[in-house]
Amino acid sequence: MIDRITLKRRASGLRRNHTPAERLLWTRLRLRNLGGIRFLRQYVIGDYIVDFYAPSLRFAIELDGGQHYERDKLRYDAHRTERLQRQGVTLLRYTNLDVSQRLQDVLSDIELAVARLKEHPPAPAARPPSFGRG
Hints:
This protein is of the alpha+beta class. The chain has a single domain (about 5-120), classed as 3-Layer(aba) Sandwich (Endonuclease, Chain A). Helix content is about 45%, strand content about 20%. It has a 4-stranded mixed sheet with strand order 1-2-3-4, sandwiched between helices. Helix 3 links the parallel strand 3 and strand 4.
């Protein structure tokens, strides 16, 4: 388990060094351009950093490069997706190739997901017990 400060530093570095696919998708998600929803880049959720996140909908978008199709990485991504879903996060995954070659299809898919989540927002995730004062 990585501490939150380390995760936030890593997320900040990822925001400065995004991939061309992330840059392209960000130009379409930023400034509430898609459905009026605010998206954030490289956002920390629990023990993970997601590429794009809409807090109001608990909706994350991940862009995967070729390394995500190696056996160990596939297993890790499946575990990560399951953990995020248990926290009440809806997650969509696309390849960098999808974004660079089929951007309009990706955006249409995201718009559909946003419309569904606006209509039927996810239930709040159960919060872990608080330790100490709180």
